[in-house]
Amino acid sequence: MAWRCSGPTNEALIENLTRNNLITQPRVQRAMLLVDRAHYSPSAPYEDSPQPLGHRATISAPHMHAAACEALLPFLHPGARVLDIGSGSGYLTHVLAELVRPGGRVVGVEHIEALVEMGVRNSGKSVEGRELVEGGGMRFVRGDGRLGWEGEGPYDAIHVGAAAKGFHQALIDQLRAPGRLFMPVEEGHMQHIYVIDKKEDGTVTRTKEMCVRYVPLTDAPTE
Ligand code: SAH
């Protein structure tokens, strides 16, 4: 899949992801076209593969970012509140912020200070990113994402960018009803994406999706 979707430019990458049905929604396509991965990936930005960020973190592969946006899309309306846990490079935080414009707010939660700063710095490389940060449509905070980010909830959508050891109740509690959580969860030696829906009446359902490989959602390293 990866070799078929890579391209020489951001436009070519997004076009190839669309041609291979990894992006099916025009809104996702538009948002991913608006955010140049070269502002966020320190190496090979248009390859459909994860790239190292330092601090044992990786920017996820474009097809995983696309899958997350496609899954969360019904909850990404103008004005929506969104949490991006393990924001790393800040790439997905920015794409999500484009998807909830105008009036939406996305909080990127990251537990390594240098990566919080990386997210802010990367966002500053584009006019759109700067506008979103200055206007409050996107912010990066330091915190343990397993606890969510209480101050700005409830959230219409929550994305977790690192593999969790379980279904953290704080994240489910901070979801709006209705709302949707997209997260990789460790299961033995495997990891699977789970899509967790909180319905309007508060009932919660879990759907197990594809097998994935993410960095773990952990305690903050002692530096
Ligand atoms: N979505 C990011 C993924 C970065 S990799 C991107 O595509 O750029 C996963 C990130 O989760 C790393 O940056 C790591 O530092 C962060 N992380 C791991 N455990 C965490 C925790 N408990 N709280 C917040 N961030 C965490």
Largest sheet: 7 strands, mixed
Q: What is the straight-line distance between the termini? A: 37 Å
Q: State Rg.
A: 16 Å
Helical stretch tally: 8
Overall geometry: globular
Let me know the average pLDDT: 96
| Run of helices and strands | HHHEEHEHEHHEEHEEE
Low-confidence stretches: none
Tell me the strand order in the biggest sheet: 5-4-3-6-7-8-9
Bin the helical content: 25-40%
Q: Please indicate the percent range of residues in DSSP E strands (runs of 2 or more).
A: 25-35%
Ions, cofactors and other ligands present here are:
S-adenosyl-L-homocysteine
Q: In total, how many beta strands? A: 9
Structural class: alpha/beta
What can be said about this structure in brief?
This protein is an alpha/beta fold. The mean pLDDT is 96. It has 8 helices and 9 strands.
Give descriptors for this structure:
seven-stranded mixed β-sheet, about 220 residues, 8 helices, two-stranded antiparallel ribbon, binds S-adenosyl-L-homocysteine, alpha/beta
Description:
This protein has 223 residues and is of the alpha/beta class. The chain has helices at residues 2-5, 10-19, 26-34, 62-72, 91-99, 113-123, 127-135, 169-173, and strands at 51-54, 57-59, 81-85, 105-110, 138-142, 155-160, 175-187, 190-198, 204-211. Strands 5-4-3-6-7-8-9 form a seven-stranded mixed beta sheet. Helix 3 crosses helix 5. The longest helix has 11 residues, at 62-72. The mean pLDDT is 96. The structure holds S-adenosyl-L-homocysteine (SAH). Residues 57-60, 85-89, 91-92, 109-112, 115, 144-146, 161-162, 215, 217-218 line the site of S-adenosyl-L-homocysteine (SAH).
